[in-house]
């Protein structure tokens, strides 16, 4: 988990960060940054931890862009975990 490795809190915010139909808070207010371009908000106790988390995020994005879908092991692992969480995993 990147947050544990880097001692940082990472939040994905902006347009497209929340599933359609799930936009906004329960009280009807917009989520912070909801009207901004898609981005990651990284917070930590030290700048060193922030920089480490940002570098990890950049590496993941670079891998996602440069690696063909059928060869992207991180994507496969994440989709498998999502299917497990949703109860739709087929062994």
What general form does the structure show?
A: globular
- Taken in chain order, the helices and strands follow as HEEHH
* DSSP, total strands: 2
CATH class category: Alpha Beta
Distance between the termini: 24 Å
Describe the structure.
- It is a single chain.
- The protein has 91 residues and is an alpha+beta fold.
- The chain has a single domain (2-86), classed as K Homology domain, type 1 (Ribosomal Protein S8, Chain: A, domain 1).
- The chain is built from three helices and two strands.
- The chain has a two-stranded antiparallel sheet with strand order 1-2.
- The two termini are 24 Å apart.
- The model has no long low-confidence stretch (mean pLDDT 83).
- Belongs to the BBP/SF1 family.
- Residues 2-62 form the KHDC4/BBP-like KH-domain type I domain.
- It holds the Pfam family KH-I_KHDC4-BBP.
- Keywords: Acetylation, Metal-binding, mRNA processing, mRNA splicing, Nucleus, Phosphoprotein, Repressor, RNA-binding, Spliceosome, Transcription, Transcription regulation, Zinc, Zinc-finger.
A few lines on this structure:
It is found in: Nucleus. The chain is of the alpha+beta class and 91 residues long.
